[in-house]
Every structure is written in C-alpha cells, then in structure tokens.
Amino acid sequence: MPLSFRLFSVGFSFVCFGAGLYALASGILGKKIKTLPGLIYTVYFLFANALILVAEIVVTVYADEYKNVFGLLNGTIGNLLHSIVLALVLRRFLGADFWQGLAAAFLGSFIAYTANSVLMEATSYYSPTFGGIYLYAFITIYIPFMAVLLVAAMIVPILRKSGFYRYYSHLFSRKSWAVGILLLSFLLMCVWQVQDWLYPDTTPGIGYQIFFIALIVIALFWVQFLAMYAAGQDKIRAQEEMIAQHQAHMELLEELQQEIRAFRHDFTNLFSGLTLQAQEGDLAGIRNFMRKTSSYFDQKLGQEIQQMDGLNNVGLYPVRSLLTAKLADMRKRGIHSVLEVLYPVDAKVVMETEDLLRGVGILIDNAMEAVPQTDGTVRIVLLQEEQELYIAVSNNYEKEPELSALTRKGYTTKGRGRGTGLTSYRRIVSGYKGCVTRTYLKDGYFVQELRLPAA
C-alpha cells in the first residue's frame, strides 16, 4: 500500500472524527453548526493527532513496553486537551459557556468513540478477506470514521427537536450539579481507553456492540433526566422568587396607599386654613400656601408615584418584578432610591432573561452595598432606544472607587471577600455579542452603564 494512500487515510479519519466531535458538541449545546469554527477545530484536531501519532510511533520503536501506558495517557490527557480546545472554540465563536462546552465535548467524544470503535471492531472482525486491499481499507477504516459524521447527523436533529439543550443548561445552575455532570461525562469519554488498556484482546461480538450502543442511549437519557430534574428545581425556585417579588410589590402599593391616606388627612387640615384665608381675601397667603402644598405633595407622594409609573412602564415582567423587590429592599434599608423609566420598555434583547436579571441584580446589589451609611442614594435608569436597551445604575459613595482596579478579578468596593459580583457580571456580558458596558464617575456618583442590542 503506497505511503500517500496511508497518509491520506489517516488524515481522512482525523478530519471525519474532528468534524463529528464539533457537530455533536454543538448539537448538545443547541447551537447552530457554523462552518468557520468547525473548520478551525477540525484543522487543529488533524495536526494535533498527527503529532500524537508520530509520538506513538517513536514510543513503539524505542520503548515498546510503554506503548499501552502511552495509549492510556493519550486517551485521557490527550482527549482532555482536545475537549478543552473544543470548549474554547465553542465559547469564542458560538458564545457557549466554557464549562457547558467542556461537558458537551466530553459527551460528544464518548458518542463518537463508541460509534467509531464498535463499527471498526465489527468491520475488522466480520469482513471477509478481499483481494483488493483498497476495498478492504475502505470498509475497515473509511466507513467507521464516516460513521462518526453519520451518527452526528442523526443525533443532532433529535437533540434539537427534543429541546435537550434547554434542560442541559440547567445542570450548570448549581456548582454541585456542574461538577457532577463534568465528572460523569469525563468518565464516559475515558471508558473506551480504559477498556482497551485493561482488556486489549477483547473479541467483539453482537452482544458487545449492543451493549455499547445501549450505553450511548442510557447515558443521554440519564443526562436528560438529571437535566429535567435540575430544570424543575430551578422552576420551583423561580416561582418562589416570583412570589417574594409579588409580595414586595404589594408592600410597595400598601405603603403608597398609607402615604395617600396620611396626605389626605394633612391636606384636609391645610385646606381648612386656606378657606379662612380665602374668606379674608389674603391672596399672598394663598400663594404661599399653594407653593408649600406643592412642595409637600412632591415630598410625600411625588417619589412614590414616579416609582410606580416607572415600574408600570417596564413591560419586561421579570425585570419589573426584580426592580420592585430591589426598591422595597432599599426602602427597608433607608436608602433613597430613584427610578427613571420615562417611556415604555418592552422590546426583547439578545441577552437571555435569566442572565439579564442576574446582571442587573448584580449592578443594583453593588450599588446598595457601596452607598454611604447615611444619605445613601441609588439611581436606576432604563431607556428603550430604537436598536438597544440602555440601563444605568449609579450610587453615591464615601470613598472614591479606583476605576483602574475594577477589572481585577475579585476587586470590590464592598469589603474583603465580596468581590465575585463584578467578575460574574463581566462573564455574563462577555457571552453576548454587541453588549457594551461603561463605568465612570460623575458628580459624586459611581455610574455603571449597560447597553443591550435588541433581539
């Protein structure tokens, strides 16, 4: 067999496997399969495995006793490296979370290796001896690696149609679940390498093939079951938070009602004095009364009415609930709050609702924690523009923050050990294209702006 044909066969197998891995991982994440990132990863996979193949040949020639150990290390550490690179590609080009992408790469590797290994063993064992070596190579080498692409083409539409990615993402809502799914998927990825290392002379049979094909199905169903359970827990927690936010909204309405009752009582007393002044023809006194009454009205009810109008202008109901809860919290803490939503805000943005709530919540929490102990003020502005949603959260401060230090991981203005919020906020925003942030100081206020493109 010519060397050129052998090299082409090796390259073809690596290309099929790399492309299949990318497609499977993208399908698990529910991302659209794009050509450029797939090409980049496939080229990387080709050259990386070519180098590994050269190293394996060297080990076989000069240290044959370590051949099995090298194969095990390649199957674990090598595949881990391939998965990390794939996760980075998915994050860079498809906006996927790194850890979700890494687990998807592990699961994709397990599926690809299972399909390839089962078919390769089966074709090698059951294929008759052919006179043409090229036909034999096509059946025993080309078909098994092409099967990886075929399996990906079959599984990816099923995953998308079933909405698997929606449940899958919920597995990473808690650290314990995320660690568990990462370990499980990594062990599944390594099962073939460990099996080859422990039982190198295993003879494939029909039961052997059925077992590993069933293992793929069981693994996917088990992951989906865990994901659905996690999604259910998140839904329950979201409902509990929604109830708490509704209660905060009702408390705000009750406080406004009490303010109106108090104002009505005060206004009745003030109006009695106005009647006497009118009877006496005291125009100057009436003007002074009207001026004081207007100021009194603004002080007593103006802010509450402005906040209620602002909340009513927020058509994104989850955001409205979040703002209601935060305003009620600030009222309890004695923090002066100003909400400015002059026009309706109801357009959808590119950011997922959960991430939007987390991001805005972090900004407001940071502002609440950073205000002075007395006379603290937090301002929240929402403005729906033609192509984007503008959000600004600002607060006054006692000590001027270091703007240059804000980009450091763990930095905070709230005290030692409490600097994870800004890091999480930057990670959320970085996952969406077109989102722009800005931080600056103005007129004694620390201002953080967020601009979100319309969906």
Automatic annotation (TrEMBL):
Molecular-function annotations in GO: identical protein binding
Coiled coil: 236-266
TM region(s), chain numbering: 6-29, 41-63, 69-90, 133-156, 177-194, 206-232
Keyword Transmembrane helix on entry: yes
InterPro entries: HATPase_C_sf, NatK-like_C
Domain Sensor histidine kinase NatK-like C-terminal as annotated: residue spans: 351-453
Keywords in alphabetical order: Coiled coil, Membrane, Transmembrane, Transmembrane helix
SUPFAM superfamilies from the UniProt entry: ATPase domain of HSP90 chaperone/DNA topoisomerase II/histidine kinase
Pfam families linked to this entry: HATPase_c_5
Descriptive protein name: Sensor histidine kinase NatK-like C-terminal domain-containing protein
Originating species: Eubacterium plexicaudatum ASF492
